[in-house]
Amino acid sequence: MSAPSDADLLAAHTAGDQHAFGELVARYRNRMWGIAVRTMRHPEDAADVVQEALVAAYRRAGTYRGEASVRTWLHRILVNACIDRLRKERRHATVPLPEIEPRERRPDVAMDVVTRLSLVEALAELPAHQRVAVVLVDVQGWPVDEVAEVLEVPVGTVKSRCARGRVRLGALLGHLREEER
């Protein structure tokens, strides 16, 4: 017997099945976490946003109209939660250092740390709408048309947000190219 579709699970949840929504969460939590952590910069904020999005989806399951896939619907709720949180918390907190592998495995650990921190800081400088587009398309590897559906904007808007974000990232990260020389 094949696994129920996402739409079937959401319908079962709406009808009172206590396990259906948990199955949806199991299917999408890793993807949602990946988007949230790259968008929010801080794992604690990402965890909060994923939880807020899942609670909102749980409560609003009855409003799902089926115009988009359940996956797209869930990701749209998550992206909205990320954008709302970013707008509320325009703060510049410190960034924890990433886990570093031993020197014998990585010849230039210091440069790798500088690059990672620079990228995190540069992403934080982008406006929220550009950051979300760049994270979904360039970091997560989503097709532009799916991102457009999730963000509820035309494909051309996603492309222009990514292009503008990339230009801004290039300017913000230009010092890394000079350090390589």
Question: Nutshell version of this structure?
Answer:
The protein is built from nine helices and no strands.
Give an account of the 3D structure:
It is built from 9 helices and no strands. The protein has 181 residues and is an all-alpha fold. Helix 1 (6-14) crosses helix 2 (20-40), helix 2 (20-40) crosses helix 4 and helix 7 packs across helix 8. The radius of gyration is 19 Å and the shape is elongated. The N and C termini lie far apart (59 Å).
Task: Output the number of helix runs.
Answer: 9
Radius of gyration: 19 Å
How many E strands?
0
Helix amount, in percent? Answer: over 70%
Low confidence ranges = none
Give the SSE map:
Blueprint lengths: L5 H9 L5 H21 L2 H17 L10 H19 L20 H17 L2 H12 L4 H8 L3 H18 L1 H7 L1
What descriptive keywords fit this protein?
181 residues, 9 helices, mainly alpha, single chain
